[in-house]
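Hi D.,

Good news: the full-assembly prediction came through. Inputs first.
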Amino acid sequence: MAEAIAPDRTLDCKGLLCPMPIVKLSKAVKEMSSGEVVLMEATDPGSVPDVAAWSKQTGNPIVSQDQAGGVMRFWIRKA
Amino acid sequence: MARLLYVHTGGVNNPERSATPIYLATTAAAMDIEVGIYFTVNGPTLLRKGVAESLIVPKHDGHGAPLRRFIDQALDLGVKFYVCQPSLDLHGLTHADLIDGVEMIGGAAFNDMALEADRVICF
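Then the structure:
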């Protein structure tokens, strides 16, 4: 289960549209220490490919993700 | 670090074309990509002091946001803004008429940036 990963912080991006979720994610991860995990919640369907592309480009891995009731959740570990 | 260069030719007469390159460049900056926007042709009209505050980026429901918000977001994330003199002359503008944070370059510098960038994307 994705819930098994305890995040160090949570980032609520529900209701936000491109480019805000990625902008907020970038800012949050810059404030974190290496190894910490952020749980990001988003409702923009574009977040799925966008978070994947952001992760690939920045090297901060998505350690888990799920989707329920129109809310997408991503657990991202700072590299 | 990857590098992208956007070329923005849209101006105040096309509000629907004003924000997209700025959104994309902002997203690139958030992806830790080194990114600049070269405002040319009508692009510099968006950077005139006082313009972006009242230029509303349209939305279908009529609740658009001012372009200034997106410009500030881009500059805050480190997107570089560039203009060149001939496109300012086209609109009777000088560098002093523009908002803070815009760098003046010339055609040679632009061409060099384009060659150094991984991709150039034109609007």
